[in-house]
């Protein structure tokens, strides 16, 4: 059907699509920029085509712009992800392992660091559309521009000026839903939240 559309129709619709995307990016930027810090609890559920059961986890989130991030999974399998703006640490207590990686352009475009990043650069990394404008519950769909991105799309939902959820679809067919609760914007966050003191005896892998 799409192939049968005339060139005139395509050219007529293109400016309107670009305008809509620009408006969506502006609206999302406006919401994210209002929160210099965010703290929250989260519950995460992941389902893929190969599994009949979903995997669930929960934990806490702390972010501070630009690029300071702490994502702590408290159960059932603990994991800690921290960014100090230059590097990212991933600590797996069960594996007794810490992975350290530079916060490069590709990594900064991942969902985990989206909330703490530079909102002005969102349009550089994502195609953005607004999927809901109803009342005080807007939602947005982001699709990475990079061909080698690990995920296919990301939906972000708000209530007022606070984030309420994220839905991630990765390139392998898995769908992850994240529900946020006890969300607080612009509260003081201890600087130590964005630093990892590596425990003795763990393996350290630098990439």
Automatic annotation (TrEMBL):
Output a single Gene Ontology CC term carried by this record.
outer membrane-bounded periplasmic space
Span of the secretion signal?
1-20
Q: Which family does it belong to?
A: Belongs to the LolA family.
Main subcellular location: periplasm
- Native species of this protein? Zooshikella ganghwensis
> Tell me, what does this protein do in biology?
Participates in the translocation of lipoproteins from the inner membrane to the outer membrane. Only forms a complex with a lipoprotein if the residue after the N-terminal Cys is not an aspartate (The Asp acts as a targeting signal to indicate that the lipoprotein should stay in the inner membrane).
Organism's domain of life?
Answer: Bacteria
Query: What interactions and quaternary structure are annotated?
Result: Monomer.
Q: Which Pfam families match?
A: LolA
Q: Name one GO biological process term.
A: lipoprotein transport
Record carries keyword Signal? yes
What is the name attached to this protein's record?
Answer: Outer-membrane lipoprotein carrier protein
UniProt keyword annotations, A-Z: Chaperone, Lipoprotein, Periplasm, Protein transport, Signal, Transport
Give the subcellular location. Periplasm
Is Membrane given among the entry's keywords?
no
């Amino acid at each position: 059907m799409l192939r049968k559309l005339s060139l005139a129709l395509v050219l007529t619709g293109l400016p309107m699509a670009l305008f809509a995307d620009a408006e969506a990016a502006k609206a999302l930027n406006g919401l994210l920029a209002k929160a210099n810090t965010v703290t929250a609890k989260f519950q995460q559920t992941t389902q893929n085509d190969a599994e009949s059961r979903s995997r669930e986890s929960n934990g806490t989130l702390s972010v501070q712009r630009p690029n300071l991030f702490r994502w702590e999974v408290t159960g059932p399998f603990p994991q800690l992800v921290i960014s100090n703006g230059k590097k990212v640490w991933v600590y797996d207590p069960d594996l007794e392992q810490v992975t350290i990686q530079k916060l490069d352009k590709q990594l900064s475009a991942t969902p985990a660091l989206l909330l703490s990043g530079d909102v002005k650069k969102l349009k550089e990394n994502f195609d953005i559309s607004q999927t809901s404008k109803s009342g005080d519950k807007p939602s947005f769909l982001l699709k990475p521009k990079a061909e080698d991105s690990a995920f296919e799309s990301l939906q972000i939902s708000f209530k007022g000026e606070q984030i309420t959820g994220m839905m991630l679809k990765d390139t392998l067919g898995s769908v992850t839903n994240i529900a946020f609760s006890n969300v607080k914007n612009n509260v003081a966050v201890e600087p130590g939240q964005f630093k990892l003191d590596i425990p003795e005896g763990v393996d350290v892998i630098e990439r």
